[in-house]
Amino acid sequence: MSKIDVVRAAMVEAMKAKDKARKDSLSMLLSALKNAEIDKREPLTEEEADAVVKKEIKQTRETYELAPADRDDIRAEAEARLAVYKDFAPEDMSGEQIAQVIKEVLSELGIEKPAPSDKGKIMKVLMPKVKGKADGKVVNQVLAELLK
């Protein structure tokens, strides 16, 4: 069952339960998934669907953060949407898992004592391995800690 089918089924459940906020959030997510599929002109793979969900989460977080302080309605709507989207998002790697992948990359590159000047080489090999599984900011922070 594709991510689109799962989201559509959840949306039908929300409609039956008369949960308008959840239905609206799922409708927006379903629309984003369908648009990505239309742009690609073929069904989305699991990784591509997960990337669309992560993109929606990121955009909703930005909406929440950029909302003026006096607009509690926008913030509440963004929070509710984030809670719904997280049900469909893939689980991110933990800091320990990212550190393990970094150690594998270091041994692959033959770097025993990484220096800050090696960061570019490391990231070039590391990012394709964690793409879609970890947030780039977290990966950067874990790598920065290891380079100290």
From TrEMBL:
Which InterPro entries does the UniProt entry name for this protein? Asn/Gln_tRNA_amidoTrase-B-like, GatB_Yqey_C_2, YqeY/Aim41, YqeY/Aim41_N
**MF (Gene Ontology):** carbon-nitrogen ligase activity, with glutamine as amido-N-donor
Q: What is the originating organism of this protein?
A: Clostridium symbiosum (strain WAL-14163)
Q: Which Pfam families match?
A: YqeY
Output this protein's name.
GatB/YqeY domain-containing protein
Give the top-rank taxon of the lineage listed in the UniProt record for this protein: Bacteria
